[in-house]
Amino acid sequence: MSKLSVQAPKSVVMIRPHHFTPNPMTAKDNSFQSNDEKRAAAAIAGAAFGEVTHMAEGLAAAGVTVHVFEDKTAATPDSVFPNNWFSTHSGGHVAIYPMYSASRQSERRSDVIEMLKTDYRVQDVIDYSGLEKDHVYLEGTGAMVLDHIGRVAYAVRSNRTNEVALERFCTHFNFEPMVFDAVDRNGKAIYHTNVLMCIGTDFALLGSQMIPDVARRREIIARLEETGRKVIDLSIEQIENFAGNAIELDGRDGRLVVLSARAHAALDMTQIQDIEQSAKLLPFDVSTIELAGGSVRCMLAGIHLSRREPAVTQLLYAAG
User: Which residues 6+ apart lie within 8 Å of 113 measured at CB?
Assistant: First the structure.
């Protein structure tokens, strides 16, 4: 359980929004979004700010290095989900992604990339954002769930996952693409792969019932099992409660599976026991942020890079 894994990063980037609100421009193809008519906008924004703060502090207490950047603008309501616009990879590689919604394209920040170059060993940055001009999109590790051990990029077809961009990414970063269709209980395409799938070192969470092609479903399960992982099947209801939107991190005392309190409550005891054979579950209440249709996995951009120097502190707040 304490063995290091290339699947589980030791450091993450988080964005703390000062003006969080569910984004009306992304609601059309995100069936996980919802509204809170009972709270004023300021109360919702304040609650989201607090949820990010609490989660960052909790991760740091568990031994994860957390780089927190402030977002003080009201123009980027989804900025709390940085995993969609960049990813990092062993060997010093960084990718920047093309975003589907125009309101999300301005989430990309040079200060985050500069921090990575300063604190970690970055060899190159490959920027795919120019593909937006051709209406070609690939929203990072929301669109893809990456198996860093087996080198497979699992991706659900959607407005936010273009297969041309996916092939280009996989060629550059040495992944094999595995594309499939997935739908919710109403037959609507799942907007991001990471809401129905999580890959840890020794296990994978998968909402297999949402993959209508039975043959393709079996292929995906078989591919995950080939790597020695136990595939833990999640029901549609569990996926709707964000049980698939989790991430494995490396903490001070071993691997952690970080997820929301809502997701944790949706798991049954057998599933919890199966996960905790490999990693400790660490839930956080992010119920306000979940109004935007994403959960804990979306909030964390894992850093799969080597540090230049050991971190002096586990919680690092950036200016701005």
Answer: 86, 94, 96, 125
N- to C-terminal Cα separation, the chain: 37
Q: What angle do CA 170, 172, 175 make, to 5 degrees?
A: 30
Residues 290-319 pLDDT 10s: 998 899 999 999 999 999 976 655 787 775
Burial of 304 (0-12, 13-18, 19+ CB in 10 A): buried
Residue 159 belongs to some domain of the structure: yes
Tell me, what CATH number does 95's domain have?
3.75.10.10
Indicate whether 257 belongs to any domain.
yes
How far apart CA 45 and CA 17 sit, in angstroms, is 8
**Does 114 reside within a domain?**
yes
Least confident of 2-6, 38-42, 123-127, 228-232: 2-6
**Other Cβ atoms within 10 Å of 123 Cβ, number:** 11
How do beta strands 197-199 and 144-147 pair? unpaired
